Amino acid sequence: MELKNAVCIVTGSASGIGAASAIMLAGRGARVVVNYSKSGAAARATLEACEAAGAKLGGEALLVKADVAQDADCRRLAQSALDKWGRIDALVNNAGTTKFANHADLDALSAEDFQRIYSVNVVGGYQMVRACAPAMKQGGRGAVVNVSSIAGKNGLGSSIAYAASKGALNTLTMSLARVLGPEIRVNAVCPGMVDTKWLREGYGPRYAAIEARYRQGTPLGRPGTPEEVAAVIVWLIEGADLITGETIMVDSGMHMGLIPPKL
């Protein structure tokens, strides 16, 4: 897909992987919708970064507050892109939430915790695709990238509810890829540990120990950066025209299991 003048919606793009993806897309000349639900100041900073990145190629950016757990907000978010530019070419479902909880403590999560996490991480992604698919179909092409997690493959991560939701998102990716082709491709990226403010704050004092284990236990020996994950997301939109229904591990090799000890 040619990204210059393409219209791309990136949910949850106030910071982290979402912000890096929005800025990278803008830098290739895309027209980008920056979305947030709570972090207005950070989202405005992302908007300004997108405008700066796309200045030389004529890229534009739009800021829209919306909660993807609400179907009406999803439809309004999609309509905002259509109202301004008349089309939608790509969607990055990056908005996500969790509750940091010890997996061994089965009382750490309530039904309400599960429902909120699923409403954003799974239902929100579904609703956004539903809101954008007609415009993509009408345009004759479209690309969706769901930001999942290695937690959906190995059952680890910030909580059981989070891991389960990302497993569901991986299945959703395949289901949507089957029914939306040939016009629309649907893929997912599964990051491992990514050095973000969100993760550092979530794990708090435990972050250093978790990072150390990650460095020791993965073949590439380090966490990723938001920009490294964003590069894969952008490639799936721009350069992977024959790929759909795929989940790509972006995790320093964590999905292979612990590396053997060096003799």
Task: Describe what you observe in this structure.
It is a single chain. The model has no long low-confidence stretch (mean pLDDT 96). The termini are far apart. By secondary structure, this protein is α/β, with parallel strands linked by helices. It has a seven-stranded parallel sheet with strand order 3-2-1-4-5-6-7, with helices on both faces. The protein is built from nine helices and seven strands. The protein has a single domain, classed as NAD(P)-binding Rossmann-like Domain (Rossmann fold, 3-Layer(aba) Sandwich), CATH 3.40.50.
Task: Describe the structure using short key phrases.
single chain; 263 residues; alpha/beta; Rossmann fold; seven-stranded parallel β-sheet; globular
Summarize the structure.
Helix content is 48%, strand content 14%.
Average pLDDT across residues? 96
User: CATH homologous superfamily, by name?
Assistant: NAD(P)-binding Rossmann-like Domain
Report the order of strands and helices.
EHEHEHEHEHHEHHHE
Q: What's the Cα radius of gyration?
A: 18 Å
The assigned CATH architecture is 3-Layer(aba) Sandwich
The shape is globular
Strands side by side in the biggest sheet: 3-2-1-4-5-6-7
Give the class-level CATH name. Alpha Beta
Give the N-to-C terminal Cα separation. 47 Å
Instruction: Report the count of strand segments.
Output: 7
| Total of domains | 1
Which percent bin holds the helix content? 40-55%
- In the predicted model, the low-confidence regions spanning at least 5 consecutive residues are none
Structural class: alpha/beta
Helix count, DSSP H or I runs of 4 or more residues: 9
Largest sheet: 7 strands, parallel
Task: Quote the CATH topology.
Answer: Rossmann fold
